Amino acid sequence: MRTQVAIVGAGPAGMLLSQLLHLQGIDSVVLERRSREYVQQRVRAGVLEQGTVDVLRDADVAERLEKQGHPHHGVNVQFDGERLRIPLSELTGGRTITVYGQQEVVKDLADRRERDGGRVYYEVSDVSVDGIDTEQPVVRFTSDGSTRELRCDYVAGCDGFHGVCRNAVPDSVRTTYERVYPFGWLGILAEVAPSSEELIYSNHPNGFALHSLRSSELSRLYLQCDPRDPIEQWPDERIWEELQTRLGTPDWKLREGPVIDKNITALRSFVTEPMSYGRLFLAGDSAHIVPPTGAKGLNLAVADVDRLARALTDRYHNGSTTGLETYSQECLRRVWRVQHFSWWMTSMTHRFDGPDSAYDRRLQRSQFDYLCSSDAAATTLAENYVGLAAV
Length: 391
Ligand SMILES: Cc1cc2nc3c(=O)[nH]c(=O)nc-3n(C[C@H](O)[C@H](O)[C@H](O)COP(=O)(O)OP(=O)(O)OC[C@H]3O[C@@H](n4cnc5c(N)ncnc54)[C@H](O)[C@@H]3O)c2cc1C
Fold this sequence. Notes:
By secondary structure, the protein is α+β, with helices and mostly antiparallel strands. It has helices at residues 12-23, 36-41, 50-58, 63-68, 88-91, 102-115, 236-247, 297-318, 322-349, 357-373, 375-386; strands spanning 5-8, 28-31, 47-49, 70-72, 75-79, 82-86, 97-99, 119-121, 125-130, 138-143, 146-151, 154-157, 175-190, 200-204, 207-213, 219-225, 259-273, 276-277, 280-282, 288-289. It is an enzyme of class 1 (oxidoreductase).
């Protein structure tokens, strides 16, 4: 089998890259180890930066997003029950964020690729990548019990944090930077109308909580927890009680409803450098992870593949390899800005135990007061949250 670009992973990064290349007349094959149903039901991110919405529009997959996505003009930060609304649009020249579930983005992309006859192989195994330092890389995989070879010009590693592509870069040229946080997030999806039209990030002495939403009937809520907690330790009654405590204010109460999805995720910051080697290009979670506090993981994946699609287009249409040569360096500038913002939001809003915990809390209070009193501080949060246009 042969293609121009072999894409490993049918998450948002892989499927969007395939679609953007298709619009430029560039052929790709996508290999995914899970089933299509599994990939489309995975509940993850839901906050899209304006730049992400623009790329999805350019990719011609925004029809449902335009109808069902919810544009937000503000976000709330809360400390000890005191709530501050940051007017995102007012502070950023009219920019917004849009709430639309990641699984819907993936579904829109998969439907579109199917309609256009795109080659996407689900439930493959034993994926391996060879010859990335030659002009003809080969991706081997097993599908329906047979071993197959995919020859290509370029390989895009869009296979997430646990994928295989990152390890194809030799150890001698690869550097990783990592921070593992001593806490995780317990996330639930609940069949109840959101209690607020905008997100609320709350720092409470018991720990962090986030009120988010997916639609007018679905609330998405998170609690800081121990990442080693078995999920059975969090029956629904305990989750609602803790959410009410951490998010409640004297004049605001959270609506409760049936929990339809529940999971615990560890929080981590991670970057691998470089993001390309030979003819392999890493994009999205295969190259970097951010704690979800800044709502950036999906947005960063989209920014990577947008850049990669442009670079490949330039290579195929104009014979220029400049975009491919500078891909890693250009992506990493945005990656590190987002790493810093996500770490900063996490530091400001979570409970840190340990000998310095009282000191840490005083710093958090001071940061919150600064946000309340300074337009400059609020603008810094706002412009990073909606996404910096030029990084
Ligand atoms: C539980 C959870 C909650 C999250 N919540 C948020 C949030 O609220 N906000 C936010 O912005 N971000 C969030 N994120 C991060 C966000 O979802 C990711 O940044 C985003 O999915 C990145 O997209 P991706 O395509 O790079 O990687 P992924 O979505 O991980 O897709 C990679 C794909 O590659 C496939 N794959 C892996 N290995 C192989 C292999 N060997 N062969 C073939 N296929 C393979 C995987 O099955 C997967 O489908 C969350 C992540 C997780 C895990």
